[in-house]
Amino acid sequence: MKIWLLPCFLGILAILSANLVFLISVIEGHVETCFPYFEGCASISASGRHGLAAILFKLTILPVMTLLTIYWLISWNYLNKITSVSTVQNKFMLITGVIGSLFGILYSAFLGSEGDVYQLLRRFGIYVFFLGTFIAQILEIRLLSSSKEFESLNYLKGMKLITLLIGVFILISAPSYGFLENDDWFENVLEWNISFLLFFYFIASSLLWKKKDIKIDLLFNKS
């Protein structure tokens, strides 16, 4: 089984879905026409809140989060076999990754619902999704780097660069809010770029999986 296709499909599906949803929302007149990665005229949430875009967004986000959970299970199982590092890090990677996926589903469940409570739940869901997935990615890189067969691979270096860029976006976001009066556009820019990098990571990871011919043990047997 070409298991490397799973993270590749996951990353491509998530990125294409977000951009297609935005394009449909523009065509249907729900959001302004702009390049959201730089202008931030609308958030991903606002893009997938109405009409056909909302249907497409909800239809794709559940399989994306399901594939994300499966990804962390496979990675956890594989890393248990190849690394000599304490399994505590590996278990924490799995826990944070799965929690991130579950909160991504929570976010999608309240998408389109009106009211301050639903808005709070959406924000809480998306923030925990971002944080949980990002932490899991950092831990995965640490564990892969501890193995000599991975440390020199360019694909792993690419994954490190992606997480570094995400970290830079996160670091510059907090102080910037204090200097910007109308910061909605800036928050939207961050959301688009962080989301893109977060899922592009899995495309880079799929190339690493393909290079090392990673296979799945359906019973997750550690022996």
Describe the protein.
- The structure is a single chain.
- The chain has one domain.
- The two termini are 20 Å apart.
- The chain has helices spanning 5-27, 36-39, 44-47, 51-82, 87-109, 116-145, 148-151, 154-179, 184-212.
- Residues 218-223 have low confidence and may be disordered.
- The protein is built from 9 helices and no strands.
Q: Could you tell me the mean pLDDT?
A: 84
How far apart are the termini? 20 Å
Which spans of ≥5 residues are poorly predicted at pLDDT below 50?
Answer: 218-223
Report the principal-axis shape: elongated
Query: How large is the radius of gyration?
Result: 18 Å
Kindly state the percentage of residues in helix: over 70%
Please summarize the sheet with the most strands: none
Give the amount of beta strand, in percent: under 5%
Oligomer: single chain
| Tally of distinct domains | 1
H/E element order: HHHHHHHHH
The number of distinct β-strands equals 0
Structural class comes to mainly alpha
Helices and strands, with pairings:
Layout: H1 5-27, H2 36-39, H3 44-47, H4 51-82, H5 87-109, H6 116-145, H7 148-151, H8 154-179, H9 184-212
Helix pairs in contact: 1-4, 1-9, 4-5, 5-6, 6-8, 6-9, 8-9
Summarize the structure.
The chain has helices at 5-27, 36-39, 44-47, 51-82, 87-109, 116-145, 148-151, 154-179, 184-212. The chain is mostly helical and 223 residues long.
Main attributes?
223 residues; mainly alpha; 78% helix; 0% strand; disordered C terminus
